[in-house]
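Subject: Cation diffusion facilitator family transporter

B.,
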Amino acid sequence: MKPLLGRITHALAPHSHDTNDKTDSALESSSRGMRVLAISFTVLMATAAIQAVIVVASGSVALLGDTLHNLADALTAVPLAIAFSVGRRPATRRFTYGYGRAEDLAGIVIVLLIAVSAALAGYEAVVRLLDPQEMRAVGWVAGAALIGFAGNEWVARYRIKVGREIGSAALVADGLHARTDGFTSLAVLLGAGGAALGFPLADPIVGLLITVAICFVLRDAAREIYHRLMDAVDPALVDEAERILSAVDGVRRVGSVRLRWIGHALHAEVEILVNHDMSVVAAHKVAVEAEHRLIHELPRLRAATVHTDPHGPAGADHHTTLATHRTH
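Prediction pasted inline below.
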């Protein structure tokens, strides 16, 4: 992939400054994401396979729900891997911002997979509640529950840590999903304990509780993806961008600051005001410095577009022509 070179235009129009190290960082983020997905997929598929064998031997509906959840969690690695791969493609004349939004589409698929696993687990729990059956191999069920918890908690920590470091909402959502899988695995122990004490309904009841837990994860994951689709960012990032811009020599005032996530990289569009009697060359220098500072000091910011406006003289309106076209 060719490195993105800095592009400079005149001072009183937007211009963009992309640095090679930011491009390399973005590629490294995608590579880290792919490694996380490959490792977590292997761990979760192994966990689900072990649990599936014990489901057949025991007939535990709670363990079945947990196994389905683990399987769904493992399969979410597939759309995410595709998204990370697609997101590395360079921008084109049609997709001028690149393909980073593929991660958000993968997030939607993840939410749907979580919803399907909740529906299947809930259905099986209700069926078993209406037609109770004796659980077999209770000790093996308990062991499978502990295996499920250990595998999911490890994967959850790994995904959430890397997801936050590279700014991937989809990977964080996937990690939250895995974390809940771990706690629902522990819940299977309750079903096994109840069955051992002669209470067969404990197993389907725990299955229903697991379904409720999956629904809570579904809500959190859907909210995380919704925020990304709506271009929501942490207000603290906007505050930090304003602080960085205000500290640039020559910036009299900071105008609008807009940030958006494209995949796991931030893009910024900002306005700064400089002295109205400043030369074009000097104003251009201030804009480039503002751009440079933003890209290097704002976490995970890959590109910034800076627009300069003249500050003063008093009473002057430099946007009269655009007044009817601006939204507030």
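The first strand starts at residue 15 and ends at 16.

T.
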